[in-house]
Design goal:
- This protein is of the alpha/beta class.
- The protein has two domains: 2-138, Rossmann fold, CATH 3.40.50.2300; 142-242, Beta Barrel (OB fold (Dihydrolipoamide Acetyltransferase, E2P)), CATH 2.40.50.
- It is 33% helix and 33% strand.
- The chain has seven helices and 15 strands.
- The strands form four sheets. It has a five-stranded parallel beta sheet with strand order 2-1-3-4-5, with helices on both faces. The chain has a five-stranded antiparallel beta sheet with strand order 10-9-8-12-11. It has a three-stranded antiparallel beta sheet with strand order 13-14-15, with no helix packed on it.
- Helix 4 (97-100) links the parallel strand 4 (84-89) and strand 5.
- Helix 1 packs across helix 5.
- The mean pLDDT is 87.
- Residues 143-243 form the HTH LytTR-type domain.
Length: 243
């Protein structure tokens, strides 16, 4: 999933850009969401410090804040080195600062009467999505499934566990940030990678993300506090796998 961030101090401009993005995500059914739309750069940095993110950022250069959009971009790079940063500005002469601060930008959108802001924003969304899907396709360390009209892509290391759904022939994938339901079988996902282990008739767990196991109740607690269960049939094998 791609998290989208908007940092803009002009209220109307912020609303406009946010609306363009949300409408396009919904219309094209993209695997994206607007995570934060704000005029406070620190709100974005605080979010990045607490969450692992694959981000697309629309940043106003001339924020009415002690941090400019360029400085914010440099701080974002420390947390999301592969994120796509788009600077939105009415001061085209300030774009040279991105080189000074070593912020690689995907695009610069100039706010003037001649810029079709909506089309430029949409073009950036499309480019970020294409890069995300290309990276997902090239990587053997990603889990990809189709859910409705969406292609869902997730790194193996981010997956906590899979469980059978109450809906026939469906599985639920649990990650730290979301749950995704799709058609499939547990025996298919358990064979995808060595870190996945069938611990129960209803669960396949990512061994790397186990925090603790209560052997008495056979409850498995994951690194984010979520839990699943192991059956007595599989518990011995799980203990052996974990060494």
């Amino acid at each position: 999933m791609i998290d989208v961030f908007i940092c803009e101090d002009d209220l109307q401009q912020k609303k406009r850009i946010t609306q363009y993005i949300e409408n396009y995500i919904m219309m094209e059914n993209l695997d994206m969401k607007v995570a934060i739309s704000t005029d406070d750069p620190d709100e974005i940095i605080n979010y990045l410090e607490e969450n692992r993110v694959n981000g697309l950022y629309f940043l106003d250069v001339d924020l009415q804040h002690e941090k400019t959009g360029i400085v914010l971009g440099a701080e974002i790079r420390k947390h999301d080195s592969r994120g796509s940063i788009v600077f939105v500005t009415s001061h085209s002469e300030l774009t040279y600062l991105t080189f000074l601060y070593k912020v690689e930008a995907m695009d610069y959108i100039i706010k003037d009467d001649f810029t079709d802001l909506q089309q430029r924003v949409i073009a950036c969304i499309e480019t970020a999505n294409e890069r995300h899907l290309a990276t997902s396709t090239e990587s053997s360390q990603r889990f990809q499934i189709k859910s409705g009209d969406k292609v869902i892509s997730e790194e193996y290391k981010e997956i906590l566990f899979f469980e059978t759904s109450s809906k026939l022939h469906k599985i639920i994938m649990h990650t730290d940030s979301r749950q995704v339901e799709f058609y499939g079988k547990l025996k298919e996902v358990e064979s995808l990678d060595d870190r996945f282990y069938r611990c129960h008739n209803s669960f396949v767990v990512n061994k790397d993300n186990i925090q603790s196991i209560d052997k008495k109740s056979r409850e498995i607690t994951m690194v984010n506090g979520e839990s699943c269960f192991a059956s007595s049939r599989y518990m011995k094998g799980l203990n052996k796998e974990l060494g």
